[in-house]
Specification:
about 180 residues, alpha/beta, 5-stranded parallel sheet, 8 helices
């Protein structure tokens, strides 16, 4: 399972990463902004985002809304923040964080992830270098012609991909064909 950790302070994120590493998990990205987390998530097909209530550039709920389908969220915050979370799809853990609780919660969410993958009958898909090149070219074209940021261009491609029922590389190829 892919794991992305997002906290405004690097020290907090590194503490969580250290706990997860000791528990046998691999962390794919440590970010200090939601935009960086979205970019990291865009390069993955699914996984888990561990974050706090308020990030430098948006609230956890906005980040959750923008995450690609297939991502789960673990919100770490005060008891009142956890109680106020806007959707029950987001799992919460209250501070002070207990190592055992964090590892058990990630294990539980990892089990959910594995069951979803099996249910879909899919193994996690790794993109080929050619697919990554096509996606990169499509993003660059959108950034140049439409004055988008890389995150906006990626979200645009994701939306086109979902709307057309194709994977991200196919959507990028269609965009390049139309705009090229």
């Amino acid at each position: 399972m892919h794991i992305i950790i997002v906290f405004p302070k690097t020290g907090q994120a590194e503490s969580v990463r250290s706990i997860l590493r000791k528990g046998g998990y691999t962390v794919d990205a440590v970010c200090t902004t939601a935009a960086a987390a979205l970019q990291a998530a865009g390069d993955l097909d699914s996984g888990l985002v561990i974050c706090c209530w308020r990030l430098a550039d948006m609230m956890y709920s906005e980040l959750y809304e923008y995450l690609p389908q297939g991502f789960q969220m673990l919100l770490i915050g005060s008891k009142s923040q956890i109680a106020e979370r806007e959707t029950e799809d987001i799992v919460g853990l209250a501070v002070p964080l207990k190592v055992y609780e964090l590892l058990r919660t990630v294990e539980m969410m990892s089990g959910t992830y594995t069951r979803r993958q099996k249910k879909r009958g899919q193994a996690p898909k790794q993109r080929t270098p050619e697919e990554n090149r096509v996606i990169g070219e499509a993003k660059e074209l959108l950034m140049e012609r439409n004055h988008m940021t890389e995150t906006q261009a990626h979200r645009y491609l994701q939306k086109r991909s979902m709307d057309s029922g194709t994977d991200l590389a196919e959507a990028a190829q269609m965009l390049l064909s139309l705009m090229g």
